């Protein structure tokens, strides 16, 4: 089968690309191994609500129009939102079609699937940045009687054995899961490395309202100092809940979670933790205060100071004087690996990877003619991995793709 563009993946990013391609009359197909919104249907825990408020999910040609703009979607609501988008933009999705390889051919790419082959001139990788949970290299050394789960396999505390739980990682997934498991009555220890601390609410408004208004979420990939570092920044300690509570480390330790440094290794029946906990927490507090400075300056410049609460600062993260550097593994029945995610491009048989196995791209334009990627961390903007990121990233990437097609018309390539 032949088509101008193959989009791989029917999450919101693949659908947003589809909308932009349709607007430019570029014929295309979306190949999806499961169904529309597959990740939200199969890889999220039961109680999860989006950490982004409903209004912060603008997509090309679509936006939230309900009566609860400041609420946080449950998983069924998120799935419904993305399925409605697919139907509104009439996305040409081929469900249950898994891409097994993409290889270069004379005039584009051959995309092999478990349902047949496609030839196309351009291909868009929209398979998600959170495809595979990352595990530390020593994870395999964990004794087999300790059960392990990841944010994609965790569903609820009932699936865990009674007994102690070690949550490794203190970003959005780790902090939310730690709180839920603690509430189930199990003792929880959280291992904390680099993290991003933000409150749910600042000066009376949602923190993401401020970050959107002050254009923090719109910081561009080609205008920031250290892009490699920015692309590795973990997700913020934020949760979407009906009571709009902040789920930071002070809350967790206040509830009874034990906090230790980054998990550094496993040896002699013990978990070993880094001694950097104080530094990591101080750094996160410092960066949070820098964010507030940017927000405060924007509020003043916009003349908002009379409309919102006055600027204030939060209590620094409380860390015990000498957190334990080792704990007997026998204290834990379960380990939750919440150390982040990586994309899975194992189907790509095109030399586009750097020495760390990451796809080389410039703002979504992959270093292979006619190949594009969307949805990766800081792809074009700080918010590229949020649903709202597709609002501007998809049109930008589609512009590049259309320009490529204009530059390399098929007839010209086929003429001798
Ligand atoms: C736990 C968690 C919570 C999150 N919370 C929020 C939030 O509150 N707000 C927010 O804005 N963002 C949130 N995100 C981030 C982001 O919005 C999601 O990760 C989102 O799913 C990414 O959309 P996507 O379209 O890029 O990828 P996905 O939604 O992952 O879609 C990729 C699609 O590609 C398909 N696919 C993969 N490989 C193949 C293949 N070989 N062949 C065919 N199809 C394939 C998959 O089945 C999937 O449907 C969260 C992410 C996680 C992990």
Summarize the structure.
The protein is built from ten helices and 21 strands.
Arithmetic mean pLDDT: 96
Bound molecules: flavin-adenine dinucleotide
Q: Segments where pLDDT lies below 50 for 5+ residues?
A: 412-416
The count of DSSP E runs of length 2 or more, i.e. the number of strands, is 21
Structural class: alpha/beta
Shape descriptor reads globular
Molecular structure report:
The chain is α/β, with parallel strands linked by helices and 416 residues long. It has two domains: 202 residues, 3-Layer(bba) Sandwich (FAD/NAD(P)-binding domain), CATH 3.50.50; 204 residues, no CATH class. 26% of the residues lie in helices and 21% in strands. The chain has ten helices and 21 strands. β19 and β20 form a beta hairpin. It is globular and about 65 Å long. The C terminus is likely disordered. The structure holds flavin-adenine dinucleotide. Flavin-adenine dinucleotide (FAD) binds next to α1 and α2.
Which secondary structure elements does this structure contain, and how are they paired or packed?
Layout: E1 2-8, H1 12-23, E2 28-31, H2 38-42, H3 75-88, E3 93-94, E4 99-105, E5 108-113, E6 116-125, E7 132-133, E8 147-149, E9 164-168, H4 172-183, E10 188-192, E11 201-202, E12 205-206, H5 207-213, H6 227-231, H7 249-255, E13 258-261, E14 263-267, E15 270-273, H8 277-301, E16 326-328, E17 332-337, E18 341-342, E19 361-362, E20 365-366, E21 371-373, H9 390-407, H10 410-414
Parallel strand pairs: 1-2, 1-6, 2-3, 6-21, 8-17, 9-10, 9-17, 10-13
Antiparallel strand pairs: 4-5, 5-6, 7-18, 11-12, 14-15, 15-16, 19-20
Helix pairs in contact: 1-9
Bound molecules: flavin-adenine dinucleotide.
């Amino acid at each position: 089968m032949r088509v101008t563009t193959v989009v791989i993946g029917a999450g919101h990013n693949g659908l947003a690309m589809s909308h932009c391609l349709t607007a430019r009359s570029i014929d295309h197909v979306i190949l999806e191994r499961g169904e529309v919104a597959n990740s939200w249907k199969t890889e999220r825990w039961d109680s999860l609500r989006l950490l982004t408020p409903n209004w912060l999910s603008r997509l090309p040609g679509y936006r939230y129009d309900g009566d609860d703009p400041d609420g946080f979607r449950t998983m069924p609501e998120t799935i419904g939102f993305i399925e409605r988008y697919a139907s509104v933009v009439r996305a040409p999705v081929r469900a249950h079609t898994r891409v097994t390889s993409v290889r270069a051919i004379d005039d584009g790419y051959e995309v092999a699937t478990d349902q047949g082959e496609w030839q196309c001139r351009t291909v868009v990788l929209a398979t998600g940045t959170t495809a595979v949970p990352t595990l530390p290299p020593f994870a395999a050394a964990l004794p087999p009687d300790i059960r392990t789960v990841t944010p994609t396999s965790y569903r609820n505390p009932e699936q865990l054995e009674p007994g102690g739980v070690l949550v490794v990682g203190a970003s959005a997934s780790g902090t939310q899961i730690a709180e839920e498991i603690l509430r189930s009555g199990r003792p929880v220890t959280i291992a904390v490395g680099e993290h991003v601390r933000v409150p749910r609410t600042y000066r009376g408004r949602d923190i993401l309202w401020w970050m959107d208004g002050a254009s923090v979420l719109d910081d561009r990939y080609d205008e920031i100092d250290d892009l490699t570092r920015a692309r590795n920044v973990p997700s913020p300690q934020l949760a979407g809940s009906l009571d709009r509570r902040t789920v930071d480390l002070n809350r967790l330790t206040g509830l009874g979670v034990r906090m230790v440094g980054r998990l550094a290794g496993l040896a002699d029946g013990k978990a070993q933790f880094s001694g950097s906990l104080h530094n990591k927490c101080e750094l996160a507090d410092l960066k949070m205060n820098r964010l507030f400075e940017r927000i405060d300056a924007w509020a003043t410049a916009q003349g908002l100071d009379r409309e919102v609460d006055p600027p204030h600062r939060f209590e620094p993260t409380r860390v015990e004087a000498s957190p334990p550097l080792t704990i007997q593994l026998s204290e834990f029945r379960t380990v939750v690996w919440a150390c982040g995610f990586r994309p899975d491009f194992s189907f790509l048989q095109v030399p586009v990877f750097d020495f760390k196995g990451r796809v080389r791209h410039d703002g979504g334009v992959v270093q292979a003619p006619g190949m594009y990627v969307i949805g990766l961390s800081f792809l074009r903007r700080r918010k590229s991995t949020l649903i709202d990121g597709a609002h501007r990233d998809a049109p930008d990437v589609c512009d590049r793709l259309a320009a490529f097609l204009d530059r390399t018309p098929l007839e010209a390539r086929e003429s001798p």
